[in-house]
Design brief:
With about 700 residues, this protein is α+β, with helices and mostly antiparallel strands. It is built from 23 helices and 24 strands. The N and C termini lie far apart (about 70 Å). The relative contact order is 0.08.
Length: about 700
């Protein structure tokens, strides 16, 4: 009832609205307000994605921008402004976004701009913004030439100008943008004179728009106006929408954001699209029956795409055309028959080395049916699979790797890594060149991946213009990404790289372990925090790939960062509904805050066991690892202590071993009992452990059969 009242209130209190044709405009305006106030208005006081329970800065920016465009800002504008000021996804009350290696100035810009629309005070942003400088060369750009992310650097002068504070390195920034401007007036991430070795190439429409705004904020000379207008107008496609550059050969899609950026950039230069009516028609084609707008025609509505479309239509004075347009048809999602299907769990990029016995045990205890191995040691997958079969553990191991040192070069932007992660069956190692152009990558590695029923997972890119091109090309060609990573360590990439959410109906959102360290046991906390769920009849690799292609998957986090509530990301409506209805079958917790995480691993190892630490020269050893307090692979202090080990009822002596890294941090720790050659038959092993904090004890018992 509360949301319905809000819809009515805003619909009636349209501040300053003077519609030219009330009866004609009523339908689209009312539908748009209904979309905003029933789908993206959240109980916490802000706006968020339709399928999420809470707000996000980028959606607040988009919603307020949309309402500002139609003169329908919320009645209590200053309350909304304060909410936006205090709810940055990385610095606000909800820290689930996690840290990023770069300062994402675009989200601060969105806060500042939204608050200005609302008439609020932006002065609190000045102290931090005054310290901003170029981010060229930082590791998190994952670019081989140390190029900056242009649209992030553009935010420095733009935001400082908006805040009315002195501009940082004004001359240096002007020089930067001038050297990255092409002869045709466009801008991009690599220098204009870089040449093929430096990833030189044409401009990008997003980088061009933000660079023009930055140059204006910097008071730079007005140059190449006619050339820039011609280049921008050439980005318009036959359907009226804009793409990222004229005659693009990679990711040549029309999109709401490209069309908005093209029209905004042309407006800055006092120009319009070459075919204004076609642009209007294109923007209207993004309109959906729920009142929102999609990124492309026929795509589900998204809050940010809705802002881009409405803002662009306003710039073209086309609300009247929208009012006269035919009513949009509803998007009808397929309704698959999931009779006979179940929900299974996959972990992408778990360990591919260390103890295969413990990996199989963890898969069994944590209900992981598919385990993608990162950096798999030769023979490790085969050994782990053999053990799983021998012990009747229903887990399949496959390759889920990160070619960490391999780059793809995108002309005009640079050479990038962390965008080439992949999955493939265990028997099919994939070849990557050290550095390949996209054409070479497409005709070699991506072709090979498709032939073996594999594909790529986008790990992370803070370079939105780059990532959009790569994602769109995957959608266009059927080669490339099968999914987009979200939850990763203590991060949620969709929260600090919100462009990913624009693709949620078109590509699966998955979680990524990106395992580090030498043993799966020490990664068990991460394995417990999140996973990807998929719908299939059987938990096979092939069925998982089919689920990814159908978007019958969700990424899910349930841990302290999500306040022990389900953070569910992605999936079709039908898939989400089916998966959530089956929670009792796949959940890995008892009480909401009691995660099912083993506290001790007891492993019997012989001299011929592969990939096992502490194996004997002859006979058998019993190795015991207990849980430690850790930050991922870095062990800090024991959370549990082994107080007694019994074999067949007798207490035995153990030897403690600690393995240090080059930095003198603890990489591994275990207790070892030299068992020798036990008699044939069944033996009982009991490990008693004590919680270091609470002093509570528990005894873990297992049997071992000596043949």
């Amino acid at each position: 009832m509360k949301k319905k009242s809000c819809v009515l209130g805003i619909a009636l209190l349209i501040a300053g609205a003077v519609p030219l044709n009330v009866s004609a405009q009523a339908t689209w305006r009312a539908d748009l307000l209904k979309y905003i106030n029933t789908k993206i208005l959240k109980e916490d006081g802000g706006y968020g994605w339709e399928d999420q329970p809470d707000s996000h800065t980028s959606v607040c920016y988009a919603a307020v921008g949309t309402l500002n465009d139609i003169n329908a800002l919320p009645q209590d504008k200053l309350k909304m402004a304060e909410f936006i000021r205090t709810h940055h996804p990385q610095h606000g009350p909800n820290h689930e976004a996690g840290p990023s290696g770069s300062d994402l100035h675009n989200m601060t810009f969105e806060q500042i701009q939204a608050i200005l629309w609302l008439g609020g005070d932006i002065s609190s942003f000045a102290p931090d913004a005054a310290k901003w400088k170029t981010q060229a060369g930082i590791l998190a750009n994952y670019e081989d030439h140390k190029y900056a992310v242009m649209f992030q650097d553009a935010m420095v002068p733009i935001c400082q100008k908006m805040l009315g504070i002195p501009l940082t390195d004004q001359a240096a920034f002007i020089s930067y943008f001038q050297t990255h401007r092409r002869a045709n007036g466009s801008f991009n991430g690599s220098p204009a004179n870089a040449g093929p070795e430096g990833a030189g190439g044409d401009g990008n429409i997003l980088n061009t728009y933000w660079a023009l705004r930055a140059m204006d904020a910097l008071g730079a000379p007005k140059e190449k106006i006619a050339e820039t207008i011609a280049w921008l107008q050439s980005c318009q496609l036959k359907n009226g929408g804009f793409t990222h550059q004229p005659n693009a050969t990679i990711g040549a899609n029309d999109d709401a954001i490209y069309t908005w950026a093209g029209i905004k950039a042309l407006q800055l230069l006092g120009a319009k699209p070459k075919n204004v009516q076609a642009a209007i028609n294109y923007l209207i084609s993004l309109h959906n029956a729920d009142g929102g707008f999609g990124d492309r025609p026929g795509v589900h509505s998204a809050p940010v795409a809705t802002y881009y479309a409405i803002d662009a239509l306003k710039m073209l004075d086309a609300f009247g055309a929208l009012a006269k347009a035919a009513a949009p048809k509803p998007i009808v999602e397929p309704k698959p028959d999931f009779t006979g299907y179940k929900v299974y769990s996959v972990q992408f990029q778990g360990q591919g080395g260390g103890s295969p016995q413990e990996a199989v045990m963890l898969a069994d205890r944590l209900h992981i049916q598919l385990w993608g191995a990162k950096y798999p040691v030769k023979g490790w997958i085969e050994e782990a699979q053999r053990i799983a079969k021998e012990r009747n553990v229903p887990v399949t191991f496959f390759i889920a790797d990160e070619p960490h040192d391999n780059d793809v070069t995108i002309a005009g932007m640079g050479s990038f890594n962390h965008v080439l992660d992949y999955i493939a069956p265990s028997k099919d190692p994939i070849h990557y060149a050290d550095n390949a152009t996209y054409d070479v990558l497409k005709n070699t590695t991506l072709k090979q991946l498709k032939e073996v029923n594999g594909g790529m997972i986008l790990q992370v890119s803070d370079n939105e213009p780059l990532a959009r091109i790569l994602i769109d090309e995957s959608l266009n060609s059927g080669l490339g990404y099968l999914g987009l990573a979200t939850v990763h360590f203590g991060q949620n990439f969709t929260f600090w790289l919100p462009y990913l959410y624009e693709y949620r109906y078109r590509l699966p959102l998955v979680t990524l372990q990106d395992a580090h360290g030498i043993e799966a046991w020490w990664w068990a906390d991460e394995l417990t925090n999140h996973r990807t769920l998929f719908i299939a009849k059987e938990p096979t690799y092939e069925a998982m790939i089919t689920a990814l292609k159908n978007n019958w998957t969700v990424g899910i986090r349930h841990d302290s960062l999500s306040n022990y509530k389900n953070r569910v990301l992605g999936g079709t409506e039908a898939a989400r509904k089916f998966i959530l209805a089956k929670e009792a079958d796949w959940k890995w917790w008892g009480a909401p805050n009691k995660l099912i995480r083993p506290q001790v691993a007891v492993t019997v190892i012989g001299k011929d066991d592969l990939h096992e630490a502490g194996k004997p020269a002859s006979g058998l050893n019993i190795r015991v690892r207990v849980r430690w307090n850790s930050t991922r692979e870095t062990l800090k202090s024991p959370a549990m202590a082994l107080t007694e080990l019994k074999v067949d009822g007798k207490t035995v002596a153990v030897k403690d071993t600690t393995i240090k890294t080059k930095r003198n941090t603890t990489a591994d720790a275990y207790s070892l009992y030299t068992w020798g050659q036990p008699a044939k038959g069944t033996h009982k092993i009991e490990a008693t452990i004590q919680d270091v904090a609470t002093k509570a004890t528990q005894t873990y018992t297992q049997t071992y059969v000596q043949n």
